[in-house]
Amino acid sequence: MRPEPDISAGAAPSTEARADDTPGKTSAETPAQTSAEAPARASAEAPPVISLRGATASLGGRPVLRGVDLTVRRGEVVALLGANGSGKSTAVRSVVGQVPLSGGELRLFDTPSRRFRDWARVGYVPQRTTAASGVPATVREVVSAGRLARRRLAPPRAADRAAVRRALELVGMADRAKDPVGALSGGQHQRVLIARALAGEPELLIMDEPMAGVDLASQEILADTLREQVARGATVLLVLHELGPLEPLIDRAVVLRDGCVVHDGPPPKAVGQHALPGHDHVHPHAAHDAEPIRTGLLT
Ligand SMILES: Nc1ncnc2c1ncn2[C@@H]1O[C@H](COP(=O)(O)OP(=O)(O)OP(=O)(O)O)[C@@H](O)[C@H]1O
Q: What is the pLDDT of residue 129?
């Protein structure tokens, strides 16, 4: 079982986890910030950032992932789709080390997960919960937590404060920096959680249903924010129920059903009747005898 990492969703990696670490890259050195390398995005030749092979995992004694293969290459924006309970959250939680794999292989930035320590390269926005609304912290404090993995326990420096400010501006929350997070609407709260992940200037951004329960205005801000991350060369894995305003950004969709991948390719189009709840989507490229793909876009 792998140790559970602390990543930019909250705390800096533990001292133990860093014991055999090689010196991490500075944000200035990371590929995500190197515009000359940006053309590699979405290329089949780009190196894999996430590689799950035959991944299996169980929760509460029940198999939830049953042999998942998922590759996300540098610069790609991949949507993980599927009906409720198909295993999407479990798959991304296994990628960030919160759910141990019982079998298969996970590599991050071409490093076996058991040896991966460079969590500052990863930004994770978990599925939204209401738990944080009771936390007596300001918006700036929550977003600043996203720098901890980069600061490595050192006091915040000008670069840290600037990154926090930039992240707050990106999600349109700069004017709320001093407000308690408990005073925010659901959509604003989600924007703060995304700003927390962005403050770490991650190369890989993983978001679990970032649009769920978010008002239209916040959705548009989040779509713009993501567009900006994609433009700077970030690699993105998104758990989504429907593509919605993010559709133009998605390079590829992976659809899960009952813990197995049933589609890996172009994002399914959800238009007209296909967008109605409960519709079983059949992808145009599916084999003739393939069962309908329940994309979970709206189910
Ligand atoms: N902590 C847990 N203990 C036991 N079973 C769990 C736990 N967390 C999730 N499950 C079960 O694992 C299965 C997959 O859950 P998961 O949250 O990964 O699905 P999902 O595709 O993300 O669903 P949703 O779209 O509803 O978020 C579900 O049947 C769920 O009930």
A: 64
Best residue among 52, 89, 128, 258 to mutate for probing ligand 1's pocket (most ligand atoms within 8 Å of CB) is 89
* pLDDT for 275 beyond 90: no
CB of 80 within 8 A of CB of 240?
A: yes
Ligand 1 interacting residues, C-beta cut-off 6 A: 59-60, 64, 82, 84-90
- How far apart are the CA of 89 and the centre of ligand 1, in A? 7
In 10 A of CB 285, how many CB atoms? 10
| Structure ipTM | 0.96
Task: Enter the tokens of residue 247.
Answer: 């559709």
Nearest to 256 by CA among 89, 95, 100: 89
The confidence score (pLDDT) of residue 105 equals: 97
Record: fold of 40-275: Rossmann fold (3.40.50)
**pLDDT tens, position by position, 220-242:** 888 888 998 899 899 999 999 88
Of 223, 90, 198, the closest CA to residue 144 belongs to: 198
Round to whole Å and give the CA distance between 177 and 274: 41
pTM, whole model, 2 decimals?
0.77
pLDDT in tens, 238-272: 999 888 888 889 999 999 999 999 999 998 875 43
